[in-house]
Every structure is written in structure tokens, then in C-alpha cells.
Amino acid sequence: MRALVLERQAPTTDRPLTLAEVPDPEPAPGELLIRLTACAVCRTDLQIVTGDIEPRRLPIVPGHQAVGVVEAVGADVDGNAWRIGDRAGVTWLAGFDGTCRFCRSERENLCPNATFTGWDRDGGFAERMTVRADVAARLPDAMTDLAAAPLLCGGVIGFRALRLSGIEPGGRLGLYGFGASALQAIQVARHWGCEVHVASRSRDDLERAEAFGAASVGGYDDPPPRPLDAAITFAPVGSVVVAALRAIDRGGIVAVNAIHLDGIPAFPYEDLWWERSIRSVANVTPRDARDYLALAAEIPIRTEVEVHPLAEGNEALARLERGEIAGAAVLEISGR
After folding, report:
1. 187 and 83, same structural domain?
2. Stretch 6-27: mean pLDDT
3. What is the DSSP pairing of strand 195-199 with strand 216-218?
């Protein structure tokens, strides 16, 4: 099969992904083999490829928002849960031990032995991949593969960030940064009747946010019209976290939706006073994926995708890095 393989982390200008012929994977006990049709491109993929995030394994096939059809079912998989021909999606969470206190309380995302797709094990920038059956996500029938792929990371983690922010229906929410994840989060927030303020450096992003129902927009340092009940930061920039903190009301939470942050600058304690909180968002759980996919089908969530063939993975990453993609880049894969 064909796969985009990362052998050495490097800038996108060096075209670090190599399109190669590699052996088809075989499903181990408890796993599914998926023939992939699409895989969305995430900023975390970019950070792994370019070296902002230390590699767990090299060579590695990146990609963790993959969609496809079950082609084989490994031993020990419940035949009533997964069958050949089922549509399945893959998220960032690749595995967990199932025995620790976090797993026992449905917080598998915090498992100290968790593994991650495209970081610990080969991901979806390929024609086939294997995935544990207990983390694979069943896709609603109404969703096309290209539309579903961006839901599986940016959408699911944005949904978890909404939960962790403590925002309630009808509340005032700030979204700091407006990429693929925020584009889905605003639709959920508006579905809940929230008043949404969006901050970004990009005029195009702000215009898009208004089109998706933002009540107000501005730059990162521009205060919203009224103090916010909660905020989510999507930009991997520490100063944005501080800007969001200054925008929230007493008792509010800033949920930091980033796996990598360039550092939070010093700020006066008064900005944190009155029981304001900063809370990180780490990974996702299988329940997050199930709940979000059901909600996304109900709303329904609209995704904006820029489609690239698998061979253009380097170009898609470079365009993401330059901020040239509106919505999400998706690699369309024609498996053999």
C-alpha cells in the first residue's frame, strides 16, 4: 500500500513526508483493519512533522483524523460491535490500559499508558491502517467521508474543550483563534444558544466567524463587549491565553485547546483573581467521540474542507503552516 512516511523531522520546505510503498498492516487481536478513504490534516500533525513535538517513534505514518471502511476484523473483536463493511473513524487516542483510575472513571485521555495515533503508532496518511476496536468511532450514515474526517480531532477536542470550559446554554463564550476546530465549536455553541465572541488576527477568519453566527469579533487584545462566562484558546500562543483570561468574568474558565504552547508570559495576579481558572484540554475519550458525532449529525455540523490527494500531503501541511487553509485540509485516499 502507499503511505506518507516521516523518517526525519524537518521544516515543511524540506518536504519531510515521503510517499512510499509499505506492507499492508495486519490487525492484531482486538483490532480492525480499515481501508481508508480520507484523513484530515491537523496542526498536531504539522508539529510532529516539523519537530515542535518530540517524536515517539520514527519512522512513523502521521494522521489521526482518518475515515474508512472495515476490511478485516481481528480476533477477540465483538462481532456484534464491528463487521466487515462498517464505516469507521479514527481519533487521536489510539489506546489506553483500561485499569488505571483514570480509565475506570471514563477519563482514558489521562491514562499514563495512553498511546496516540500518528505519534505512537502509524496513522491515517496511508491507504490502510489498524486501530483498536474499542477506540474506533462509528460514523453517522448522513455524513460523507470528506465531511466526517475533520470531526474526528478538531471537532471532538473542540467539543471536549466546550465541556471543560463550563459554558452553559445561553452563556457568553469566547473563541480565541478560528481554525477548523473553532469553526465546529461555534456551531455547537450557537446550537446551545450561546453568545459567541471570536478573536483572531485574520480578517478573513473574523468575517467567517460572523457568517457562522458570532455576536462580536475582534483582535486578541480587544476586549469583548461584555465579560465572558468562559473562553477557549485554539492558537498555540501563550499571550493569547492571557488575553482570554482578561476577557472572562469572575469564576470563568479559560480552556486551553493545544497540545503545544510557546509559553505563557508573566501576568498580574489580578487577572486570575476572583476564582478565574486556566485549564488545559488533553486529548479525547471514546465517549467524547461518540457523543460529538451524534450531536454533529443532529445539528448538523457544517465543515469546510480543502481536498488534496494523498501524494500532496507535504503541500497540505505547508498550506496549513502558512495559514492558507479555510476550514480543514483533507487528504482524499483511493485505496487499492
Report:
1. no
2. 97
3. parallel
Query: Is the predicted pLDDT of residue 334 greater than 80, yes or no?
Result: no
**Interior/surface letters 51-68, b for 16+ CB within 10 angstroms, e for the rest:** eebeeeeeebbbbbbbbb
On whether both 15 and 136 belong to a single domain, the answer is yes
Q: 241 and 117: one domain?
A: no
Tell me, what CATH number does 55's domain have?
3.90.180.10
Of 247, 265, 280, the residue that ends a domain is 280
Percent of the chain with pLDDT over 70: 99
Q: Which of 240, 264, 280 is the last residue of a domain?
A: 280
Q: Are 143 and 297 in contact (CB under 8 A)?
A: yes
The three grid cell numbers given for residue 76, joined into one nine-digit string? 477477540
| CB contact burial 76-109 (16+ within 10 A = b; e otherwise) | ebeeeebeeebbbbbbbbbbbeeebebbeeebbb
How many other CB atoms are there within 10 angstroms of residue 69's CB atom?
17
Which three three-digit cell numbers place residue 115? 498511546
pLDDT digits (tens, 9 = 90+) for 262-296: 889 999 999 999 999 999 999 999 999 999 999 99
What CA–CA distances, in Å, run from 183 to 175, 206, 236, 306, 326?
9, 11, 16, 14, 10
Shared-domain flag, residues 117 and 231: no
Provide the CATH number for the domain around residue 206. Answer: 3.40.50.720
> What is the number of structural domains in the chain?
2
Residue 79 lies in domain = 2-152+285-332
- Residues 15-25 have pLDDT tens digits of 999 999 999 99
Mean pLDDT, rounded, for 157-166: 97
Do 108 and 44 belong together in one domain? yes
pLDDT attached to residue 335 = 52
d(CA 328, CA 324): 10
For residues 163 and 138, state if they share a domain: no
